[in-house]
Specification:
Layout lengths: L2 E2 L11 E3 L4 H5 L5 E4 L18 E5 H6 L5 H7 L36 E5 L2 E2 L23 E7 L4 H4 L6 E7 L5 E11 L5 E12 L2 E12 L2 E2 L18 E2 L6 E7 L5 E3 L4 E2 L9 E3 L5 E5 L5 E3 L2 E15 L2 E19 L26 E5 L3 H9 L10 E5 L19 E19 L6 E20 L1 H8 L62 H7 E27 L2 E20 L13 H4 L20 E17 L4 E11 L6 E14 L2 E12 L10 E8 L2 E8 L7 E14 L2 E13 L2 E3 L2 H8 L14 H4 L2 E3 L8 E10 L3 E17 L2 E17 L2 E3 L2 E4 L2 E2 L16 E11 L2 E10 L2 E3 L19 E3 L2 E12 L3 E8 L26 E9 L1
Parallel strand pairs: 5-8, 33-38
Antiparallel strand pairs: 1-4, 2-3, 4-7, 5-6, 7-8, 9-10, 9-50, 10-11, 11-20, 12-19, 13-18, 14-15, 14-16, 14-23, 17-18, 20-21, 21-24, 22-23, 24-25, 25-26, 26-27, 27-28, 28-29, 29-30, 30-31, 31-34, 32-33, 34-35, 35-39, 36-38, 37-38, 39-40, 40-43, 40-44, 41-42, 44-45, 45-48, 46-47, 48-49, 49-50
């Protein structure tokens, strides 16, 4: 639960918390003693603690009483934060590729609009966060050294500059640590090996300075989807819950050669008979399908290993000068990111490797299997009614096919395909602050450099190599001779003679022994026809991306008093300048580098000339390497005007210049606090605020996400936009503070009016508008020509033939959002010899109205209110209208017991069901399906033992409540829910 103090004042460099803990006696009365409070929100020294800005303060004491939650758990539970990254969610374009990293998203306005600081200084963004949108990776925060988290819930661009639209989260390190602290914890998670942490913290003070050092290790164990019954649902329970019409057990079209050498259908489309035996669901029709459940191959929690080092030193350089230096290093490793055995075939071969490209235009583009393929011959012998004797091969349509499915991937021991995520972050900051003379002007000079490097790998099928393997020209990955050019000359004939290094890939079910997840055996399996893992490794290749974000910041701040005395005191001022230089680099391996491999056939022909430059891979797109940098210059000023003892006004303004086409912005802010009575105060603020375009969005480069379209996942290519303008917002707030005896409460109304928000075009809305209800009625309609140009099809225009959708980052339509924050606490001083505290905090979003969104001259989204809705693939994230938390905490002697209830309001999935009724549940999740409210109970117990030892016991999700069902791939919403179920945690801390 948040311990809220509404404070604003002093330098933002440090908060001094004196815990006053010496021995067991002091520990038993461990209320945080605040010697000097210096809180996020102002550069003016001496601003009173009860000034006008709403700052929620979470101390290390508060965190310990809650069982010391991880950074992700803390930020996800904040009522003021919605749509948080941190849990595995590879099926939403807004989260893909971010496994192992985290974020904070104040007001649900987007994590890129919350400024994250350490000790008041900026951090370099996550190089992979939402396509490089400027999101800070909160998982790199050195948690063992943090003594306080401050959440400023107000627009703060006038003080801090770009990205502080929704507010600021400032992580402040501990002070006054003397000696060594060792901590460890273990959390039992049903179905996994559990999570555990360990840390060491050491501090020492001298007469003229102090030092703090920390080291921490955190481990999360893998939790698979099959460890939770609710995560992998049968098709008729949730057709959108991880089921795809694209499968390795696929429909195929028998074909034959005409006398002229062209190919024609020899029969209608057939479905491989191994579907049901391997666990698929047969979907009949002119183009039948074997529906594939890909979710059992994925994880709810990936294995994460995280190591963090932090150090700082402070020294007095004289009576009026202090030196501060800090540095940290963080490494996060996700060594085995699990995904589907292979991806959908969204790109298909050219005539260079596929002789059957001359089929009628009504036949979807795809892959050719000749009659010489041993798998084909055996399948025809076993199923003579499906394939006529005169057929010379089979055609497999691309958008209904993936090379590997229910049998798993032979290159990964018949399991899921795997990749990795790895992050290295480094940051150093130092400065000098003091005064010119005893009563002179104060100064604060600092330099900060930070960087984070991310490496992301995965695997995809090389189109031309796979087509060659179907025809018997495949090579083994560990064979240095391979299938030589002399043997493959013209790719016209081959008997599949392994002795010369050429091999066939068998695409039929007779190559699959069993379902890799359920173990169900395949009666038609023939071991002689099984595929060689080394052949798979030859065409199923690694793609690798390495990206780095760097940030250098120079700050100079001066402060003092104007010498103008008002009834409430002297007018205080602050002014300063800031310089920021941002860097971004991206490096791709050859297969994912569009300059090295721009064409489908480049890996086998070396050609780099082609009409369509989508690279050589079946599903994933390619990227262009980048080396970018940009500078920002800023000037700012601030006044604290104590009109009377009861009325205080703060004024601030900031000018930032981005140069080039982006230009400059000027943003003022004013706030006021009125102490109407001893027990009642009012406050209000108004400001303009802004966010400059992220460096990575100002290029023509692209990243590829995947999105569920027309029954299968398709590629969404998200391009940058050099013409982006800064987004701006007008922000308003008004509230009241009540303090009556042991009762204190705050109520705040807030509002944000955005212009030109920087957003990605909504791919889901683009598809739904182009193909209303799945219909192709808009195809080739001149009014939709601009929208249709965003699609790449395998064949004629239609929702089932979509291969790729092109979107870009744009300045989107205006957004208006408002809501109310309420926080209250009451202390009972003497309850059975102890103290009882009751408290709660809620955030209620009144509205989140988005104006119409136009793409290609067509309105793809009508105006809508996102508050209380799932907002799947829209410009807003999941936004329950109400989030809250209440607690009861009892303290007596060395014991502290706390019961917390976290609440997430129900919200609506506003999508129309895209599937027909079925025999099990009739109409499947109609429009307006509700995602139920969530109540999660938590018990935390802390006890101080002799020998300076503290023990924490926690039970999270006491009643083992499942996450609320959502019509999504994982059958719940990872942005808001938790997949862990009831967990038990033991933590121990020892001081030496």
């Amino acid at each position: 639960m948040l311990k809220s103090r509404y404070l604003c004042g002093g330098s933002v460099l440090a908060v001094v918390l004196a815990m006053g803990l010496s021995g067991q006696a002091a520990a038993q009365d461990q209320s945080s003693t605040v010697e000097e409070v210096v809180v996020t929100g102002s550069f003016i020294a001496g601003t009173p603690e009860d000034a006008a800005l709403p700052v929620d303060v979470i101390s290390s004491e508060d965190l310990e009483k809650q069982g010391t939650p991880s950074t992700v758990e803390l930020l996800k539970a904040l009522p003021v934060s919605s749509g948080v990254l941190g849990d595995t969610n590879q099926f939403d374009p807004r989260a893909q590729g971010s496994e192992g990293s985290g974020s904070v998203n104040l007001r649900g306005l987007g994590a890129q609009r919350t400024l994250v600081l350490i000790n008041g200084r900026r951090m370099a963004p996550n190089p992979f966060g939402q396509a490089g949108a400027g999101i800070v990776d909160t998982n790199i925060i050195p948690s063992a050294a943090i003594g306080r988290v401050e959440v400023l819930k107000d627009g703060a661009a006038a003080i801090y500059g770009s990205d502080a639209i929704a507010g600021v989260v400032n992580f402040i390190t501990r002070t006054n640590v003397e000696g060594l602290e060792a901590s460890a914890s273990y959390r039992n998670v049903d179905g996994s090996k559990g999570d555990y942490t360990g840390s060491l913290l050491w501090g020492h003070s001298w007469d003229n300075g102090n030092v703090l050092l920390s080291a921490a290790y955190q481990h999360r164990s893998e939790l698979t989807t099959t460890d939770r019954d609710w995560a992998a649902q049968p098709y008729f329970n949730n057709p959108e819950g991880g089921w795809s019409a694209g499968n390795a057990i696929a429909p195929f079209l028998p074909v034959t050669n005409t006398p002229t050498g062209a190919f024609t259908p020899a029969a209608g489309f057939q479905l491989d008979t191994g579907c049901a035996a391997l666990g698929g669901v047969v979907q009949p029709g002119a183009l039948p399908a074997c529906l594939f459940a890909y979710i059992p191959f994925d994880n709810l929690v990936e294995t994460e290993n995280r190591f963090q080092l932090y150090g700082e030193a402070n020294a007095d350089l004289g009576d009026n000068a202090k030196l501060h230096i800090e540095a940290f290093y963080s490494e996060t490793d996700v060594p085995e990111w699990n995904t589907s055995p292979s991806y959908l075939a969204l790109q298909t071969p050219t005539a260079t490797t596929n002789p059957a490209t001359g089929l009628p235009a009504s036949v979807l583009a795809g892959y050719f299997v000749p009659a010489s393929n041993p798998g084909f011959a055996a399948y025809r012998a076993a199923n003579p009614t499906q394939i006529p004797a005169f057929a010379t091969g089979a055609h497999i349509p691309g958008v209904r096919y993936r090379p590997l499915g229910y049998g798993g991937n032979p290159a990964f021991d018949d399991g899921p395909s795997q990749g990795l995520r790895h992050y290295d972050a480094f940051r150093v900051s130092g400065g000098i602050k003091g005064r010119f003379g005893d009563d002179g002007i104060g100064y604060d000079f600092s330099l900060t450099y930070g960087q984070e490097t991310g490496v992301r790998t995965g695997y995809d099928t090389v189109v031309s190599r796979f087509q060659l393997a179907l025809r018997g020209f495949g090579a083994l990955n560990n064979d240095p001779n391979g299938c030589t050019s002399a043997e493959t000359a013209g790719f016209t004939t081959n008997a599949g003679n392994a002795a010369i290094g050429c091999h066939y890939f068998n695409p039929f079910s007779n190559a699959v022994q069993s379902n890799a997840i359920t173990g169900a055996t395949n009666p038609s399996f023939n071991s002689a026809l099984a595929n060689n893992p080394e052949l798979v490794r030859w065409f199923f290749q690694e793609v690798r991306t390495k990206q780095t974000q760097k940030l250098f910041v120079a700050d100079a701040v001066f402060n003092g008093e104007l010498g103008i005395e008002l009834a409430g005191g002297n007018i205080g001022w602050a002014a300063g300048a800031q310089f920021r230089r941002s860097f971004f680099t991206s490096i791709y391996n050859d297969l994912s580098n569009i300059d090295a491999n721009p064409c489908i056939d480049t890996p086998i022909t070396g050609t780099t000339s082609c009409t369509v430059r989508n690279g050589p891979l079946m599903f994933l797109g390619t990227g262009e390497q980048a080396d970018l940098e940009a500078d920002v210059y800023a000037l700012f000023a601030e006044l604290a005007v104590p009109v009377t003892d009861d009325i205080q006004i703060q004024l601030a303004a900031r000018y930032e210049d981005y140069g080039g086409e982006t230009g400059s912005t000027f943003n003022p802010k004013g706030s006021i606090r009125w102490q109407a009575a001893d027990w009642l105060a009012f406050r209000a603020s108004a400001s303009t605020t802004f966010r400059g375009p992220p460096l990575t969005s100002l290029t023509n480069n692209s990243v590829t996400a995947l999105s569920f379209i027309g029954g299968s996942f398709r590629a969404i290519d998200i391009f940058g936009n050099p013409g982006l303008e800064p987004e701006t917002a007008k922000t308003y707030s008004a509230g009241a503070i009540v303090e009556i005896g042991n009762f204190n409460a705050t109520v705040d109304y807030w509002r944000f009016d955005f212009d030109n928000p920087i957003v990605g075009e909504p791919s889901g809305s683009i598809v739904n508008t182009m193909f209303p209800g799945g219909s192709g009625a808009n195809c080739n309609n001149p009014a939709f020509a601009g929208l249709q140009a965003r699609f790449t099809f395998q064949g004629a225009c239609g929702i089932t033939t979509i291969a790729r959708v092109r979107t870009q980052v744009v300045n989107g339509p205006p957004v208006k959002t408002s809501g109310v924050d309420v926080l209250a606490n009451y202390d009972f001083d003497d309850v059975m010899g102890g103290r009882l505290r009751l408290g709660g905090s809620i955030t209620y979003t009144l509205e989140y109205k988005v104006d119409p969104f136009t793409v290609g001259g067509v309105t793809v989204e009508k105006a809508f209110d996102a508050a209380g809705y799932l907002n799947y693939q829209l410009s807003a994230t999941s936004l329950p209208q109400l989030k809250g938390s209440v607690f009861a905490e009892y303290t007596t002697g060395p014991h502290n017991l706390r019961w917390t209830i976290n609440y997430i309001d129900s919200y609506i999935d506003q999508r129309t069901a895209i599937f027909a009724p079925n025999p099990v549940n009739g109409a499947i999740q109609p429009n307006g399906a509700k995602i139920d409210e969530t109540w999660l109970h938590e018990i935390d117990y802390r006890v101080f033992l002799p020998w300076d030892t503290t023990v924490n016991l926690s039970i999270d999700n006491v009643f083992d409540t499942e996450p609320s069902f959502a019509r999504l791939d994982l059958n719940y919403d990872p942005f808001t829910g938790s997949a862990l179920g009831r967990t038990y945690k033991l933590g121990v801390k020892k001081k030496f």
